[in-house]
Write a structure and sequence with these properties.
single chain; 187 residues; alpha/beta; Rossmann fold; seven-stranded mixed beta sheet; 8 helices; S-adenosyl-L-methionine; transferase; methyltransferase activity; RNA binding
Length: 187
């Protein structure tokens, strides 16, 4: 997908796309730093968009680890399906992260070891943000990790309501610069 097509999707759906350009590879590397790829067996990616974080996850994950991609934007979902649909270890789902429990059941996954989120929580309706974070906290395995990025720390308190031990890192090499936040489920 070209940058122009990405911008077109942003213009059509700014609340769910959330960025004018795809994330940088530097941001993608930072997004997966807190995942112990030797231990995880199931990963969900919320809002994978064009697959920048997906590529980094696939580069690092072990054989046998299932990656579930949940994308609400139809254009992005079709792109992801074309790119990864033939893989046995990747499941592409057109749907909402709010329904992650249903998607997990369909895939035969009991708990998630990691959730990587590209969702624009700053522009999502408040009720949707709470619903996604609540269910994410519930489906993460003990010791699991939730990782997201945001362009400001405006929603940090919201994340802290659902997750413990939050760590953050500023990534300057992205347009715009972003914060990566990683935390554990609050059980």
């Amino acid at each position: 997908m070209s940058a122009l097509q990405f911008v077109k999707e942003y213009v059509k759906q700014p609340r769910t796309v959330g960025a004018v350009l795809p994330s940088s590879k530097v941001l993608a590397r930072q997004m997966v730093e807190s995942i112990d790829f030797d231990e995880v067996r199931s990963i969900a990616e919320f809002g994978p968009g064009t697959g920048v974080f997906t590529e980094e996850i696939l580069r690092r994950k072990k054989d046998g680890t299932v990656l579930m991609l949940i994308e609400e934007n139809r254009e992005f979902c079709d792109l992801l399906h074309d790119r990864y649909g033939e893989r046995d270890d990747v499941v592409v789902i057109h749907g909402s992260a709010e329904d992650v429990r249903v998607h997990m059941k369909t895939c035969g996954i009991r708990q998630l070891d990691a959730v990587v989120s590209g969702l624009p929580f700053a522009s999502l309706p408040n009720a949707v943000s709470h619903a996604i974070l609540r269910v994410t906290n519930q489906v993460l395995a003990p010791g699991g990790v939730f990782v997201t990025f945001q362009y400001s720390m405006m929603k940090k308190a919201l994340f802290e309501r659902y997750f413990a031990g939050m760590e953050w890192q500023r990534v300057w090499w992205n347009v715009p610069p972003a914060y990566v936040l990683a935390a554990r489920p609050m059980k």
